[in-house]
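The freezer alarm interrupted the setup, so I double-checked each line after restarting. Inputs confirmed:
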Amino acid sequence: MILGRHHGGGVIALTFVIALLLTIVPLPDWARTLRPDWVGLVLIYWCLALPDRVGVGIGWFMGLLVDLLTGSLLGQHAMALAIVAYLTLKLHLRVRLFPVWQQALTVLVLLILHQMLSLWVSRFMGRPGATLFYYVPSLLGMFIWPLIYTTLRSLRRGFRVS
Amino acid sequence: MSAVETCSRWNKTPGGGGSLTPEYARIVLSFSRQAVFPAGLHQHLHRGAFIKLIFTQGPSITTRVVLLVALSIALMMMDHRQNHVDSLRAGLSVLVYPLQLAIEMPRTVSEWFRESLATRRQLQEENVSLRTQLLMLKARGQKMQALETENIRLRELLDSSFKIGERVLVAELMSVDLDPYNHQVLINKGELDKIYPGQPILDADGVMGQVVHVGPYTSTAVLITDTSHALPVQVNRNGIRTIALGSGTINRLELPYIPNNADIQPGDLLVTSGLGGRFPPGYPVAIVQFVQHDPGRSFAAVVATPSAKLNRSREILLVWPDDTSTLETNGTVQAETQLPVEDIQGDAGPVPAVTEENP
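Predicted 3D structure, all chains:
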């Protein structure tokens, strides 16, 4: 990757920082288990928009930060987000052409995959399993995808991130 | 179109085959079946048929993701068997500290405003109520001191070691949310305040949990209700010892190892037994909520409610259970005789005494 070709890296970093902050901002008890996967959503957007800039490595690193912030096992979200980034990169040419609602469905699948991988690791550690309620954050993530998509797209265009 | 012509056109295609049309592919394939290719063309075909990668530099994303997943699995395994990557976690926690501070800031600022803009009247009222509370606690403390000396004297007669009063440090929970499925909290004190992994934390009403990860400025503690937590306790009334397991629900502890004929009833106070050596003995843990005797099972189903306000407390106490400095404050008389005894007996000391006193 030649650095001179790209600019607007600060904007990408800023969106990730905001996503990380939203991951740990205190919520009332009933809403804690409903928190959408902000980092996953932002990662999927940038992987779709700029696949040659944001990829597997950045996804892994962001996952590691999520692990540190949420006190989960080191590598749990890192692995899941690296795989999510990988699949997004593999699919990006197709998904980019989809209408937004169809994109949202793809995002749902990716977010559920993130949660499933995470749950899988938890089960390995001997934690109890989850009900279907566990996947509600992914559903919420799907519903806010159009919002994330339009916001980040206008940011990308406004700041000419490439 | 001859085979040679096809080959020459094939070679000219830019990017080594990125623009291979179906027609070309068909022709090339049919030629390859007839085996009329000159030597070396096969390699060209292979290179051409290879899907062009998004990343032309560096390893392919598949290689990268495989490497990273392997790295993650290695990390997780080392992290699960504790202490292997604790220093790495501590170092990296500095990286996320600014984020945690940023989330904490609005609360700090609003608290500062509330305190500095409080009226004289409010402060006076608060002052009066605090004074009353202090007086009441002091009065209780006077009696406690007498009881404490008496207790130590009696225990000396029984030749058992017992420590009362540990070094404590007041800390605050940071208002950040951790994984909602693990019962963990973030504390605003870390290695710089000599916090260590395994250190007990308490609030005003009872035991809250213990520290699991220590960073330079912050540390993470696991609450007693987390599913991975088990705490040695005893019934305060009669000294029955058992283990309280976290249930994953914030107001519920399970005591699965109590025999059906054991004397335990709703309302019993459970205190730490000090066995296991992490928690100092005698701190309140929970109150038994219900006991169910099922004749078909060998153990009774006992559920208790934690005394500590696990999801409401902000101020917590960090305890150093075996801080030798407390010996000096507890009176110099027993200091010489007690020190060697303690090294041998450890925490198992007080327990036989308790059972003897309650026949």
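Quick read of the result. Helices of chain A lie at 9-24, 29-32, 38-49, 56-70, 76-95, 100-124, 136-158.
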